[in-house]
Amino acid sequence: MNKLIGPFTQIVTLANLPVKGSIEDEQLEIIDNAGVSVDEDGNVLAIKTFADFDQDAFKEIETIDQEAVLIPGFVDCHTHICWGGNRARDYAMRVAGKPYLEIAKAGGGIQDSMKKTRAASENELKDVTVERADRHFSRGVTTIEVKSGYALDIDNELKMLRSIKSADKETKADLITTCLAAHMKPKDFEGSSREYLDRVLDTLLPKIKKENLSNRVDIFTEETAFNVEESNYYLSKAKDLGFDITVHADQFSTGGSKVAVDNGALSAEHLESSTEQEVKMLAESETVATVLPGASLGLGMQYPPCRKLLDAGACLAIASDWNPGSAPMGDMLIQGALLGAMEKLSTAEVFAGMTFRSAKALGLSDRGKLEVGKLADMQAYPCNDYREILYNQGMLPPFKVWKKGN
Ligand SMILES: [Zn+2]
Is residue 21 over pLDDT 80? Predict the structure, then answer.
């Protein structure tokens, strides 16, 4: 049934903006006193001045009787929200001065989450994932990528991916699964890193394909996880198996973003340590540069060179990296606002980075803008000027969020 929603004080469509490079706020398409109509499949039918709609043509009209600014739902293209336990102890150690890699080497970090995630049942993992996804949805995030990678053995990685799949049926947000079995070689694996990757390639990835659990593969490229050579080996094989690929790149040292670009990855994610050379390379590629301000905030590290990436012409996506260790906050709105202030980004660049540009990082072109034919994934804020959204630095949450027009 066709439905009309409105009137909104402003609709910021993000239509007609470039996929790559810098954007000025003056380029934003803003329609005043506007409405949006949605078809029975949840796609946008039309967006125009509310008074120009023939209200008799709609069986249902959802009236917005307050001042409201409508923007597309956020797409969080990088999270790890399926995990067991918590890492408050690690966090306290780290803020007191212990470096991340030292905590990891001492048996904290990922290994700790691994134990608790392995111990949790599929149903328990599903429940915590739904809880976090619902919280994200209430803050305007309508699509959420969720990685495995805290189990690191074949059966438990499958358990994680199945639990994310069942969580997807219970939360309003769309959950996109990614296999991150190459997060780190687990301590109890007897063999080399290469042998661990071979085990994943030979045993896990075919099962994931068969059960249709994910079509995406990620790797943590870093000397302490998997080096450049191992990453190239793994990703080229995963590509041969038909997976889309993405890379945890340049977080502590460079190398990962080149792996991403060389292997035609959809995205290179993190980039805190990227230099001029990586910025140029990413800008000249089709690989999305995804930055994760939540990880900088959680680790007390520098932000990635966002301004330089945009000025060089890269496609900059912004995601939360929500995870139990380095990015426990998990809030797009606060992080986007803070990143914009620190890196001198326009509101349009922050919005683009959290919507259609992050959708591109997931290979999705059906969302992230409010345009005819795109999904009616939308969020409305209680204000009359779109600039108030980031100005409030996360303290003005959306009052209504729609997934496919509902
Ligand atoms: Zn991550």
Answer: yes
